[in-house]
Amino acid sequence: MVTPLRGNWATLLLPISDDDSIDFSRLRAEIDVLIDAQVDGIYSNGTAGEFHNQTEAEYDRVQETLATACLSAGMPFVVGACHSDPMVSRQRVARAVSLEPRAIQVILPDWWPLTDAEAVDYLALIAEEARGVPLVLYNPPHAKRVLTPPELRWVLSRAPTVEAVKLGDGDAAWYASAREHLGGISLFVPGHHLATGMREGVAAGAFSNVACLNPRGAQRWTDLMATDIASCLDLEARLQAFIDTHVWPFRRDHGYSNAALDKLLADIGDWAPVGTRLRRPYRFIDAGEARRLRPIARQAVPELFI
Which of 43, 130, 184, 233 is the most interior residue, by most CB within 10 Å? Predict the structure, then answer.
């Protein structure tokens, strides 16, 4: 029996060269570091992987690079086949199957938001292409259609190949609704909310921005939640204060994307040669900001950098 998806999953960030090309040598080095960190799994082509800004040839090469390294090392991996165009996403899913991923992640098409019935039909089409490979539904807070826990239950009860959902969490009322409607579904909350999600009995894990900051530290923190949730909640509070004070303003006040924030975190952590650059036309945060924030992050959450 396949073990349910859970734990600390590290996102594959896309190293971009000065000429706007993908630097595959740096990508391979990043994968090697993540494997050596012994994270619970690696996933590709989420928001921070810039799935929305790749050619199909580049998409295939990124997935093949990840799959080759992970299969050789016995590292679980999830392939992101996300795309705003449902036809392109279906084609990506079909090609991903041969790579033998643990699961394939998709978003709901977002040029025009789907109704619940259309979402069920779309996931059925994706399941046909996936040929038995489980699916992860990525439904982030910036999606055109963010499903509530009751809406998710209705859709997922009619889309049984969806094994897990990556989503944004909420307040106490949201957690109560998730417990009522989404029991038995692997829910992946934001990485910097994982201890709260575990305490509330809702989260199976995180496709984690904390792993962007430091994958090895994020793994230690996740493992500790099984035995010392109180200290993990304390770290979470300090981590959220650091992000709210020093990272979130880049989006709130200056309009940088979530991918830019995740790459900033990775450069603050300085654990792999990713860099902060995004592919044009998206703006990236200057690497000097990461250097400025490194000592502040280490003072705020030293446990992540041991």
Answer: 43
